[in-house]
Amino acid sequence: PAREEEEEDERPKIAVIGKPNAGKSSIINKLLGEERVIVSPVAGTTRDAIDTTVKRNGQEYIFIDTAGLRRKSKIKEELERYSIIRTVTAVERCDVAVLIIDATEGITEQDAKIAGIAHERGKGMIIAVNKWDLVEKDNTTMKKFTEKIREKLSYMPYAELIFLSGQRLPKLFDMIDAVIENCALRVQTGVLNEILTEAMAMKQPPSDKGKRLRIYYITQVSVKPPTFVMFINEKKLTHFSYTRYIENQIRTTFGFRGTPIHFIYRERKEK
Fold it and tell me: Which of the residues 130, 182, 187, 210 has the least number of beta carbons within 10 Å of its own beta carbon?
């Protein structure tokens, strides 16, 4: 029965993920305007994922606050191992993951691992740099910080990025709304094939031993994340760099900011 209930719940689900003490609970408290989640300076206070309903402009959202992931070497208790499982479970349940990065520490290996969980599961992604007001800044600080994040998370260039101090929380909500919309965006088949034809005219598909990849047709088969099927002559002629090129052409037209895009190749023999 619980599963049926979960499936019927159409409210957007946002998982707030990140290392212990990055400030996940504080951000949820600010969004709520009340102390619903325990905030404590002791790392790992949030032992379990807590679902909190937030209502804004008549729309309800479910925020899933998770126990922060910590390095394997520090796991002594079963409870903490359970916390890691909860983070993965929370990400699997969510539509959008908001990765909280501590600005005073910068982006770490652990942040990259946590982001990877959401990326592998095809979730919408927002990187929120928290405690930004505590960082000493000059006119290049934000640019340098952004470059470091993009470099470390180079596998998810689509992720949205926001720098948070108290007053910027409404912007986080606007970004969540935009990412939710992009994750569910559908593109008409006719338009997709126009983009494909133009892309192939500008840059030929790859070839191997004199045989060239032929892409006959593209269509979108699902959302969350947007997934496209390309009908081609031979899978072994495909190359990830050309797939990335097609993805970039689609993104140039439709944005899809904050959401990964998946491609599936299907062989279709030439008649």
Answer: 210
| Nearest one of 18, 1, 23, 9 to 165, comparing CA atoms | 23
What letter would DSSP give residue 68? P
For residue 199, which phi and psi values (nearest 5 degrees)?
-60, -45
Residue 105's alpha-carbon distances to 34, 57, 129, in angstroms, are: 27, 34, 10
- Determine the Cα–Cα distance for residues 142 and 121; give it in Å rounded to an integer: 29
For the chain, how big is the Rg over CA atoms in Å? 21
Residue 124 CA to residue 103 CA, distance in Å, equals: 22
Q: How many CB atoms lie within 10 A of CB 20?
A: 19
The pLDDT tens digits of the residues spanning 60-95 come to 888 887 654 455 555 555 555 665 677 788 899 999
Tell me the pLDDT tens digit for each residue of 146-192: 999 999 999 999 999 999 876 667 888 899 999 999 999 999 999 99
The b-or-e profile of 81-111 (16+ CB within 10 A means b, else e) is eebbebbbebbebbbbbbbbbbbeeebeebb
* Predicted TM-score (pTM) of this structure: 0.84
> CA angle, 78 as apex, 102 and 51 as ends, to 5°?
55
Question: Contact at 8 Å (CB) between 98 and 15?
Answer: yes
Beta bridge partners of 18: 100
